[in-house]
Design goal:
By secondary structure, the chain is an all-alpha fold. Helices cover about 75% and strands about 5% of the residues.
């Protein structure tokens, strides 16, 4: 048993080395990000303006936080299609708590995060205990969350007009003016803070160790004494926490909880994870890669808009990029890069 246990811990140790599994795709992703910035900077003088860069970072925050949670799930070899609608449900619950129940803002924020965590826990239980495939379990949760958001809100937006300071959560700035007239919104700071915390959890804790072990070889992890079902529930719950945070951010940014919003965000989040080098087959991935992937998605979308590319062609280009990222993942698995 000792030898098996040591072998189980070896996989996460390799994740901490300089040349991690999948490092080549992360390097290529970072190079692609730099290339996109350079190309769009030459194509339009408006792209590299400070206000536009801040706009890109702000648009990355919500999708990026969703992608952080999705990274944990995908590393296990699973998938979570519910993050977009669970984000919306979390936003609605935050709004209902603050605007309808009259709770303090901090209580409403806690309600939003706990809503995301609860949805993640239910999805994790369905996957681990009920043996429902992740695709089906999270698809069902996507529909449940979408319906609950509409029912609880009465199909109408929930506004935070009486919640003084709520918009500052996303749009305020703790740093103040970096350049006179220009600030870094709190949503961006929250995104990067969440990325740092996520990276620590994934690389320095028991949760991260078992996350990689389950994704690399679930049966071997189980035979090594790991309570796979329990840790899967924990991992899906952690992903739900990130989703709840994203719900708060989007509600704060819009100063309202829009019950019909959310569907489609899951595809952007999953795309960011895959572009960043996390393997869809599980066992490989990093938070920094996901951050790069989320930035690539935002830079690409922003650059195409600045160049006045029609919306339908923007969708085509983004879809093609996702196709290339998935194909690169397939090649990497074949070559063992």
């Amino acid at each position: 048993m000792k030898k098996t246990s040591l072998a189980l811990g070896a996989a996460p140790t390799r994740q901490l080395s300089i040349f991690k599994p999948g490092w080549l795709q992360q390097f290529l992703a970072f190079g692609s990000l730099i290339a996109l910035v350079v190309i769009f900077s030459f194509a339009s003088e408006n792209f590299f303006k400070f206000s536009n860069i801040v706009g890109i970072l702000l648009s990355t925050a919500v999708t990026g936080v969703l992608a952080l949670g999705a990274t944990f799930v995908i590393i296990t070899g699973g998938i979570d299609l519910s993050v977009g609608t669970v984000m919306t449900l979390s936003a609605v619950m935050t709004g209902v708590s603050i605007s309808f129940w009259g709770t303090p803002i901090w209580v409403g924020l806690l309600v939003g995060v706990m809503t995301g965590a609860l949805c993640g826990l239910v999805s994790g239980y369905a996957v681990s205990k009920l043996n429902i495939p992740p695709f089906i379990a999270t698809l069902a949760m996507m529909m449940i969350a979408k319906g609950l958001a509409l029912v609880i809100s009465g199909t109408k937006p929930v506004y935070f007009t009486d919640a003084k300071g709520f918009t500052d959560i996303a749009l305020g700035s703790l740093l103040g003016d970096i350049i006179p007239g220009f600030t870094i919104p709190n949503a961006v700071l929250i995104f990067f803070a969440a990325a740092i915390i996520g990276s620590i959890v994934l690389t320095r804790t028991l949760v991260g160790r078992y996350n990689f072990a389950i994704g690399s070889n679930e049966e071997a992890a189980r035979l090594s004494g790991v309570n796979v079902n329990f840790w899967k529930i924990v991992i899906y719950t952690i992903a739900g926490v990130f989703t709840g945070i994203a719900g708060i951010l989007i509600a704060s940014r819009l100063n309202s909880a829009q019950p019909a919003l959310g569907q489609g965000y899951e595809l952007e989040a999953i795309a960011a994870v895959v572009i960043g080098g996390t393997s869809l087959s599980g066992g490989k991935g990093t938070i920094i890669g996901t951050v790069i992937g989320a930035l690539i998605m935002s830079v690409l979308t922003n650059g195409l808009r600045i160049l006045s590319v029609p919306q339908e062609w923007q969708t085509v280009v983004v879809g093609f990029v996702i196709f290339l990222a998935v194909y690169a993942d397939i090649l990497r698995r074949k070559k063992g890069a």
